[in-house]
Write a structure and sequence with these properties.
The protein is an alpha/beta fold. The chain folds into three domains: 128 residues, Alpha-helical ferredoxin (Fumarate Reductase Iron-sulfur Protein, Chain B, domain 2), CATH 1.10.1060.10; 127 residues, FAD/NAD(P)-binding domain, CATH 3.50.50; 158 residues, FAD/NAD(P)-binding domain (3-Layer(bba) Sandwich), CATH 3.50.50.60. The chain has 18 helices and 16 strands. Strands 3-2-1-4-16 form a five-stranded parallel beta sheet. The protein has a five-stranded parallel beta sheet with strand order 6-14-7-8-9.
Length: 487
């Protein structure tokens, strides 16, 4: 194993705890809502060095840092904050990259409020340290100074690993395995690398240049990439292992098969899944029309309804607004409090003029005689008793139907597993929903030498949870490659 980067001890924070606790949480500079809702530039503008250092000063140096325990990839956050406080920004970035190979990405899209920041002791009586803002700052500082770090590498082991997919699970696993000396090759079905990071998350939340830079850094570390390879069609898992000689395979293909409600009218023109809509905008650059051909039904001047309350639905409705929709409306069957989307994204959507119709559920999509969508027939809902997950169950209010005018409807109610790989790998066991069954500790599947992690195992989750799965898979793969044991 390579030794970790040697970092000089950080200057100790000698400000009394009471004084640290009086410092207000730093606010993130943002584009004006009435400007940004017409462009695809980043909403959050990032902190400068003074603001980041001031925010790091707020850390009270807990003996048992809850922030680290609640981080899915176990970043040594207390040490990172101490280095930022001391002004050792590149050293802080190096310390971050020991556990998180994609800090510029997670600093932008990770739901820190429910993970690392949720474990911050300051948050129990006030506002937690803005760990996500600092994470983004040090990654951007590293990038802007042109000193993006490459960790030390172990000698080559002669073992090789194939990665199926190039999303956060695969990238995180690739970063860990290449450092351990294994050869790693990533296979991506689409023409651009990054998986959900490029096709699912809009430019205004995560610029694609940031994703490319992080992937380029992995390439400098030795990770190999190949696009336009549909594993399960272009090549099978068995062929990768037998004909091409890979010692292990990690299936990290995500869960990108869209779900629909099964209501009348979903066949109408103007109806999209959120996945298709965002992919067409992000990968085919519909937002750059007329410089790029617009591969979607034009939203400009049209009434757009997005069904769902998660981050994907929020991304879709905010994208539609930026494409010039006359109205961009979220329709969600529970109340806003129950929305699974990040609070920041919901707040930004309100600021940008998104309309919210909560406790409302579509029952039919209405079209004209030419097959084009004209409206969404909805019914009002009320919340009943909690369901198995503790969320109050939405119940229809009889006789409360009404129609929301719309010529574009985007369905963002979730995704499920694409069956392609499973159907071409007969000895790969799946559950009743089609997800690959993998050991929760080692990520081993029913097929020797094949591992699986991320959304293809758990269903759709956050970027950082997918990265955590990648790190765990990398550990399991490394152990198997070193020992040859499969139990």
């Amino acid at each position: 194993m390579p030794e970790k980067n040697s970092v000089a001890p950080a200057r100790k924070n000698e400000l009394p705890l009471k004084e640290r606790m009086k410092i207000e949480r730093t606010r993130m500079p943002e584009q004006d809502p009435n400007v940004r809702n017409c462009n695809f530039e980043e909403v959050n503008l990032g902190l400068d060095a003074a603001a980041a250092t001031n925010e790091a000063t707020r850390c009270i140096s807990c003996n048992k840092p809850g922030c680290m325990m609640d981080c899915p990839v176990n970043v040594k956050i207390d040490q990172v904050l101490a280095l930022v406080y001391a002004g050792q920004y590149l050293e802080a970035a190096a310390k971050m990259r020991e556990d998180n190979i994609l800090p510029a990405i997670t600093g932008r899209v990770c739901p820190q409020e429910s993970q690392c920041e949720g474990g911050c002791a300051l948050g129990k009586k006030g506002h937690s340290v803005a760990i996500g803002y600092i994470e983004r700052f040090i990654a951007d500082y590293e990038r802007i100074t042109g000193k993006l770090g490459i960790p030390p590498m172990a000698p080559p082991t002669g073992k090789s690993v194939a990665m199926v997919g190039s999303g956060p699970t695969a990238l995180s696993a690739a970063g860990d395995l290449i450092q351990k000396g294994h050869r790693v090759r990533v296979f991506e079905a689409l023409h651009e690398l990054g998986g959900v990071l490029v096709y699912g998350i809009p430019e205004f939340r995560l610029p694609k240049s940031i994703v490319r830079l992080e992937i380029d850094n992995l390439a400098k570390m030795g990770v190999e990439f190949e696009t336009n390879v549909v594993v399960g069609k272009s090549v099978t898992i068995d062929e990768l292992m037998n004909e091409e000689g890979y010692d292990a395979v990690l299936v990290a293909s995500g869960a990108g098969l869209p779900q629909f409600q099964g209501i009348p009218g979903e066949h109408l023109n103007g109806v999209y899944s959120a996945n298709e809509f965002l992919t067409r905008v992000n990968l085919m650059r519909a937002y750059q029309f007329p410089q790029c051909d617009e591969p979607i039904y034009d939203c400009h001047g049209r009434e757009v309804v997005v069904v769902g309350g998660g981050n994907v639905a929020m991304d879709a409705v905010r994208t539609a607004k930026r494409l010039g929709a006359s109205t961009a409306t979220i329709v969600y069957r529970r109340s806003e409090v129950e929305m699974p989307a990040r609070r920041e994204e919901v707040h930004h959507a309100h600021e940008e003029g998104i309309e919210f119709r909560t406790l409302t559920n579509p029952v039919e999509l209405i079209g004209d005689e030419k097959g084009w969508l004209t409206g969404v027939k909805c019914i009002r809902m009320e919340l009943g008793e909690p369901d198995a997950r503790g969320r109050r169950r939405p119940i229809e209010v009889k006789g409360s139907e009404f129609v929301v005018p719309a010529s574009v409807a985007i369905i963002g109610i979730g995704t499920t597993a694409n069956p392609l790989i499973q159907s071409t790998t007969p000895d790969l066991k799946t559950d009743s929903r089609g997800y690959i069954i993998a050991d929760p500790e080692t990520n081993r599947t029913s097929k020797r030498g094949v591992f699986a992690g991320g959304d293809i195992v758990t269903g759709a989750a956050t970027v950082i949870l997918a990265m955590g799965a990648g790190r765990k898979a990398a550990k399991g793969i490394d152990e198997y490659l070193r020992t040859g044991e499969w139990a």
